[in-house]
Specification:
Layout (H helix, E strand, L loop, with lengths): L20 E4 L2 H14 L7 E5 L4 H16 L3 E5 L7 H15 L2 E4 L5 H8 L5 E5 L4 H10 L14 H17 L7 E6 L10 E4 L3 H6 L5 E8 L11 H15 L1 E5 L6 H11 L2 E3 L5 H7 L2 E7 L4 H8 L6 E5 L14 H10 L5 E3 L7
Parallel strand pairs: 1-2, 1-4, 2-3, 4-5, 5-6, 6-7, 8-9, 8-11, 9-10, 11-12, 12-13
């Protein structure tokens, strides 16, 4: 494993061409890279997976755990301190440049990431695979199909001076994500994506997760899945707290699986108001649920898990139920697209039970 900015080196199998090179920045992206490799099945030399480590301690902890599975599956993880100070980005890019330029197949997890866009712009790969990064994958596919610039659904405005400076880079990266003669683009997703013309869409069935773990032991209780919608400025904190308390009372929830980005202060308030036991997962929720124990009913607000948990828990009697976000929960800082996007995440989810949206209304 490489610490610091590190040198990734040539990712060549001894008896074959360079291994596909993957860039991931979150535990979910790393999980779905493993799912893609498992489903593809024809990677005798495995993957080289460069983990562009974030600064958030919870995310780093989950990524460290996930790299154990990367090794178990015959792939090579490379830990890159990509955000360790102002000199980290150029050191990171310099160490990756040689392999990046010569690698025919890139696998990326977040096409909205400025870091990934920079690496894409430097690449001459003939094949690019975009693996699931949750609901953001839906937005990416839609924007790519419509020829729009890549903007995260919860962002408001033009992005300011930083976005203006990175705009040429983003445009060049976007060209790398459009199929053309000599370059194939694949989207590997469990989400219902709108396939852009010429893009291959492969369904992520979470087969690796089901093959590797479970079936889980089920508890008699109900679990509630947290969300970072408050942290991203989309949902008002007080409204969210009211909704969590109402869900817990109505459905008898006993545990709250915190999102890795939820603040400690917010989680303390949830415990004080509801009595819920806060669980800080050390792995993506799909793996935690499949490993068990997990409640017979799992409650969630609109998020990736309403699409992925039914797949990870296929063959079990677990019910996944989703509670929509009421429009009056949204903050005045929320993107105008936020309400419609979140409703679309719920509407498109199959295999879940929709809860009535009467909780917390005035």
């Amino acid at each position: 494993m490489v610490r610091g900015s590190g040198t990734v080196g040539r990712a060549e199998h001894a008896d074959g061409p360079p291994r596909p090179l993957a860039f991931v920045e979150s535990p979910v992206q790393l999980l779905n890279t493993l799912e893609w490799a498992h489903q593809r099945g024809d990677l005798p030399g495995g993957l080289t997976i460069a983990v562009l480590a974030p600064n958030d301690p919870m995310t780093r902890g989950q990524l460290r755990r996930m790299t154990e599975y990367v090794r178990d599956e015959g792939h090579t993880p490379r830990w890159i301190e990509a955000r360790a100070g102002l000199t980290a980005p150029p050191r990171c890019v310099s160490s990756l440049y040689g392999e990046l330029r010569g690698n025919p197949h890139l696998v990326i997890g977040d096409p909205f990431s400025t870091y990934v866009q920079l690496l894409l712009a430097l690449s001459a790969a003939r094949r690019v695979t975009v693996v699931d990064d949750g609901s953001a994958t839906m937005e990416f596919a839609t924007q790519l199909a419509h020829g729009e610039r890549l903007v995260r659904w919860h962002r408001v405005g033009s992005g300011g001076a930083r976005a203006a400076l990175s705009a040429p880079l983003a445009r060049r990266a976007l060209r790398r994500l459009r199929p053309e003669p000599g370059r194939d683009v694949e989207v590997f997703s469990a989400m219902p994506v709108e396939p852009p013309p010429g893009v291959t869409v492969t369904a992520n069935e979470f087969a690796w997760t089901r093959d590797r773990f479970g079936p889980p032991r089920l508890t008699r209780g109900t679990d509630l899945v947290g969300t970072s919608l408050v942290e991203t400025g989309v949902v008002d904190g007080e409204r969210y707290l009211e909704a969590v308390a109402e869900l817990a009372r109505t459905h008898g929830a006993t545990r709250y699986f915190a999102h890795r980005r939820e603040s400690g202060e917010k989680l303390q308030r949830i415990t004080a108001a509801t009595g819920l036991e806060i669980v800080r997962p050390d792995l993506p929720l799909e793996l935690v649920a499949r490993r068990g124990p997990i409640g017979r009913t799992v409650l969630s607000f609109p998020s990736t898990v309403v699409h992925t948990l039914p797949l990870a828990l296929r063959g079990t009697p677990v019910t996944v139920a989703v509670r929509d976000v009421d429009p009056h929960w949204l903050t005045d800082r929320a993107s105008p697209r936020a309400g419609g996007f979140l409703s679309g995440v719920t509407r498109a989810a199959g295999g879940v039970r929709r809860l009535p949206s009467a909780y917390g209304t005035p």
